[in-house]
Amino acid sequence: MFDFTPTEQQKLVVKSVKDWCERNLPYERVRKMDDKGHPYPKEIVQGLGGLGIIMGPVPVEHGGSGIDWQTQSLIAEIIGYYDPTIATAAGLMAVETGWGYTVDRYCSNTVREKYIKPALKGEKFVGIATTEPTGGSDVAGFKSTAKRSGDEWIINGEKTFISGTEECEKWGGGFWINVRTGPIIPEAPHRNMTSFFLPIDADGVEVQEPYKDAGRMAISTGGFTMKDVKLSDEYRVGEVDKGFYATMEGFDNARIMISASCIGVIQRVLDDALPYIKERKVFGRPLAKFEAIQFEAAEIYMQMEALRLMVQKSAWMQDKRYQEEGLLKKTSEATTFTPTDVAKWISMVKWIGPSLACDAAYKAMIWFGAAGYTKEYVFEMAWRGNMSYVVGAEGGLNIQKIVVARELLGKEYIPYK
Amino acid sequence: MFDFTPTEQQKLVVKSVKDWCERNLPYERVRKMDDKGHPYPKEIVQGLGGLGIIMGPVPVEHGGSGIDWQTQSLIAEIIGYYDPTIATAAGLMAVETGWGYTVDRYCSNTVREKYIKPALKGEKFVGIATTEPTGGSDVAGFKSTAKRSGDEWIINGEKTFISGTEECEKWGGGFWINVRTGPIIPEAPHRNMTSFFLPIDADGVEVQEPYKDAGRMAISTGGFTMKDVKLSDEYRVGEVDKGFYATMEGFDNARIMISASCIGVIQRVLDDALPYIKERKVFGRPLAKFEAIQFEAAEIYMQMEALRLMVQKSAWMQDKRYQEEGLLKKTSEATTFTPTDVAKWISMVKWIGPSLACDAAYKAMIWFGAAGYTKEYVFEMAWRGNMSYVVGAEGGLNIQKIVVARELLGKEYIPYK
Amino acid sequence: MFDFTPTEQQKLVVKSVKDWCERNLPYERVRKMDDKGHPYPKEIVQGLGGLGIIMGPVPVEHGGSGIDWQTQSLIAEIIGYYDPTIATAAGLMAVETGWGYTVDRYCSNTVREKYIKPALKGEKFVGIATTEPTGGSDVAGFKSTAKRSGDEWIINGEKTFISGTEECEKWGGGFWINVRTGPIIPEAPHRNMTSFFLPIDADGVEVQEPYKDAGRMAISTGGFTMKDVKLSDEYRVGEVDKGFYATMEGFDNARIMISASCIGVIQRVLDDALPYIKERKVFGRPLAKFEAIQFEAAEIYMQMEALRLMVQKSAWMQDKRYQEEGLLKKTSEATTFTPTDVAKWISMVKWIGPSLACDAAYKAMIWFGAAGYTKEYVFEMAWRGNMSYVVGAEGGLNIQKIVVARELLGKEYIPYK
Amino acid sequence: MFDFTPTEQQKLVVKSVKDWCERNLPYERVRKMDDKGHPYPKEIVQGLGGLGIIMGPVPVEHGGSGIDWQTQSLIAEIIGYYDPTIATAAGLMAVETGWGYTVDRYCSNTVREKYIKPALKGEKFVGIATTEPTGGSDVAGFKSTAKRSGDEWIINGEKTFISGTEECEKWGGGFWINVRTGPIIPEAPHRNMTSFFLPIDADGVEVQEPYKDAGRMAISTGGFTMKDVKLSDEYRVGEVDKGFYATMEGFDNARIMISASCIGVIQRVLDDALPYIKERKVFGRPLAKFEAIQFEAAEIYMQMEALRLMVQKSAWMQDKRYQEEGLLKKTSEATTFTPTDVAKWISMVKWIGPSLACDAAYKAMIWFGAAGYTKEYVFEMAWRGNMSYVVGAEGGLNIQKIVVARELLGKEYIPYK
Fold first, then answer.
1. Cβ partners under 8 Å of residue D181, min gap 6
2. Is there a contact between D285 and A375 if contact means CB atoms under 8 Å apart?
3. According to the model, what pLDDT value does residue D334 have?
4. Min CA distance, D334 vs chain A (Å)?
5. What is the mean pLDDT of residues C101-111?
6. Residue B405 contacts C, CB cutoff 8 Å
7. Do B284 and C416 touch, CB atoms closer than 8 A?
8. Contact assignment for A290 to C291 by CB distance below 8 Å
9. pLDDT (tens digit, 9 = 90+) per residue, A155-200?
10. Which of C160, C292, C373 lies at the smallest CB-CB distance from B388?
């Protein structure tokens, strides 16, 4: 039955996360992160770890909280609200939750004990490193390789535009990587790839200087090279030559988190902007009484509620999928979704979420005039920060549209084929 | 708990409506209506009445089906799909269901027996007539009056842009009207209004020629004058001087129906257009492989799903509201919404629904090129028909935005005060 | 030197056309055309012919007025103003001027005497018939052929979505056609095509029933088949196997005319709508005082002025091109534009002109509410009529974008190659 | 006659400015400014001064170059191209040219000798300081006052969000201010204001710390307080109590410059982005072949050309206005524009220029993906920099729309009255 009521437990979790953020992520703290840049402050991550909400869906028996994706989305929304640059929510929590959960699902006990369990507490960093200089969304551009040699793999290649390289170096941890373990098949370049968990301190890994960018300051973006890096087979994640599918699963999970956090950003923009436009008078009347402004506010609100429902449905679909696979307890009558059904929804929310968040901040800046452009308000950092997720992090805008169109029309209509 | 699964009963109802429409509302039938103009074909209405879905929410004890608004929305979606001009869905079913239900809630047994019961079967027409030459959304412009004279009321005034005047004349029936029963209070012009059910054949009612318009052909739009029309107090609907509130309730119900039918329109546009763009080759490749076209298709799909969720939530809120009032059986834990909470959501969907439907048809016309402009396809009539609900029927675009902004910001920020 | 002043002569021409339209194309006349459908009233065309403005650029020595394209654009704007469905301006005058001029440039004296000269007076019709069931913008889809046989050509094939078939049949006249005179070269399908002037009454031509469409009523759209039509070589237009280039020239000229007429449509929408929104009060204030409405009006105005400048520049570029070719007298220092430079500009205005006109009418309908949807105002027919030029006539929206992108980026980036 | 050819002299000026910029404003220099922040590098300003293009329209007899506004616009375009943050073009050159010219027109010889002449050479700074904490566009909010006391004026008040406070302090110079010299008239708050030129080092002026902002780094934004500042009457600019009109003239001039520089920004975005999208392959084909990208490029190009024509016309109108006033030599037949005609056009270009520039950069960032977000390319600083002119500098977006609507509809439809 269609129902739009959070459970009592969801309300409780949300409340406790809100309380924690209220104390630990006030505006000044977030602005300080923005000013100071990376590495992201570890104590915040430890705090979130303490709440059990980093990689919340990791099963209780693996040290996680075993919460469903819908609840985790409600949490991500709160984090996005308190840090509307979404450095915390997306750059950090989405990455760690989406990818950490997926690592945990497929990894060996060794990796779980050494990396996932500490990361659950905010002690180590778990990230994703797929993009290479010759390809991000286009898997065919991936050139990094892993060659088997006895029980070991020898890995060579380069990864770029990776979130959290500096954090990973400082705190310890590693990255999900996806590399070629067989020849490239031109008509199916996603095959013959295998995923590994790469500890950042493995011999042969060299981390580069982080990029300077438009405003994703609190979380570093960087790259690293891998030169004859030796990893035992225990570091393999998932099946040999099937790395693509598990990687897609990781993206799905991370993308839900990012989109959920964008709901929080938009709510924050409204919560910070509406009192001002109601108060501030121009030409003898509050800004809020000018239709050009109030209609924009109404539109932002409407779009936020649409996004919220779409994220909730996406997370619910992902929960159903995991229920089908026996990873989550069934909550209602069976509804079956294929991974591509779910991917279509997730691409829809990743497509619109960051754009709407960026746009809401853009409009609020205009309402505030010159003041909106300054660092006295939250808007300019929300505008700059969310742009990072519009352009590309966890898959750029146009890639999401291609996925939606592919699922709507069929694979044979992919535009580049 | 958030849940997005239709119930088994909803699935059954939807299926039976679909089957009926498949047989009774094929494309040729709808195009014929478009060509022939009003009155709307009575046998279709009788058919829908036979299914028990006109004014479905009217309680069983009053002869209705007692179905909830969410289910009724799913039905409206199907009707919009089969007649994407939404003449059937909006001009007819939304009007009859939204207003018929509300009449039934507040009317005397006389009115119920003489008008609602036959209308439930598609034998008579029940509509809404609020707009006057000097005011539609602006209640202050209403000049029609009812004066009490013993047990009777004497009504004078004029109503314009009324859906279904010709149908009402031919089939019998009447209109919800809202007229002044006391002096206009400049700062609260919505007070001192009372609602009545006006039989179209009452002495003193003169119906005018229907308007010629851009394409709302299958349902007539017209006006009528009321000259010393005498109605007994049994024709009063709701309390004296409190007509405004019940009228708003009627609008809420009708607007949900219209917005729900727009989902069906968009689905129809996609279902009719996608096979064509996949088939039709230009410059050696199917139209569907051109990103400009496939991304528009993806966007239409995404917007349709957003609209669908928002309509479902709006209808669910309306159900909760009626559950609170004891008119529907409670289905889950209590969630309380005020009428204005619900109105905000309903205005959001009325705002975006017709625009999105109109826009989807507009885009499909462009994909089809010159052929899309002809009467060989459904798009041009969907484009023309839905525009009627963008411009005004059941409240125009800007009025919906004003309602959303008012609920978001507070009454003191209404732009015209 | 940059200058934006019309010449005295241009002012005079504009004034005389305005005066004529004021008398001969009042609203009621245009609405009557809309109601009655095709054929387009011949007396209007004769009147325009009498003014010397149909095919105005045809040289004086050929019986034309020898006016430049910029002046002809100013005229088209006036025609679009008085008949904002653009049936007269685009469906008729743009077609006749753009194609008639181009026929005249390349045709034999026989064709000139028999068809162009009468058409200049509005006595016969000259149109364009390139589209075929298997291709409009995509030349590769053209299947019609002309085979040489002594001094004759034997033509077979079918043409669809042709403006003016019924007018042509009734008044006499013919169409520019472009047919294969050699094998199709897959990598250059535009080669081996030759243009002819096809008299509609030639033996073997069979004209089909006009299409029913969304509102291009005053000018017919139809198709015809050609079965062993014999034409003497005098009916060839331009060089053998080089028909593509002359056809492109014809499109350029017709597209300038259409875009120019759209300026007039927008001006008309504003002139008809602004007094109403200033007068009509809602909630105690004129509609014009609501920012949502006045900002839309301001945006329409701004877009109209942008379009006007772009059309003027396009026409000026076309004039420069013809000056270079010695067909027009040089007016200022040499500025050289290649045909593709000019085509890029013309595609820009054809891209935005009809869309802006359609959108202006759409917005005005919303301002007027339910009244805007009726046939009492000009907006609904402007909305329906201009849509015909958005979807396809003289090249659809997306084709124009492809042309602009091709000229901006280079031929090697055409999306379908 | 309509003509779109630059004069030979304009071509020469443009070429010399381009050459200078090529040598003195390479990308690295501009990026360094962005990194280092204010004060803006004086040597650049001196260089521009050396070319005679700061305040170019100042008459030769006052030490300026006496060039017209259309040529000055072509120059501003070049500057915007080389520094697409528009710190140089708008923050600096538009401010100095627009306001410096207007000061020069109305000031005493003392001010001219001490401030304008050095500023013409880039030795001193001349800016504008109208905004106050309680009002920017809304003149009624201005509280600063000047009281006459013999031949002196005593000035008190505060100015905020002023471009160039730090530059002014370092280099010497001052600001156009507009203060109350009589009681506020509620229904005409723009009356009783007088303009002065305020030397930044006048006793009683206290300059505040510059704001931290989103990315207008190379030019400072700050505020200052004025406490019993004494200025002789020689520092008055224009007539007593008539300061508003001269201030509007200054805004007109500065706004043309800003809008012109935005053309350059867009051209730069295209010039930097197009080679990359043609080169960079994704999924086996260059980005430029994807319609979603190439159509956006085509749209940016089209909008740039529309903006260019509108700026050229605005500048030409301003030239005509100054020709009428005898300040510029007449160049063609008389065309008369009122100041409000010109203001309408200028507000149109100020409205769309910065938004289009910001949006072009936003789109290019998306094409470049993660790389587009870094400081390796020009886009992110163009995006951040131009936003400053969207939100407010020289009049925010909505103010421009209000001006256009006011001129289109009439003063009585100003939305706040």
1. D145, D146, D147, D148, D192, D193, D194, D240, D241, D243
2. no
3. 62
4. 38
5. 97
6. no
7. yes
8. yes
9. 999 999 999 999 999 999 999 999 999 999 988 888 999 999 999 9
10. C373
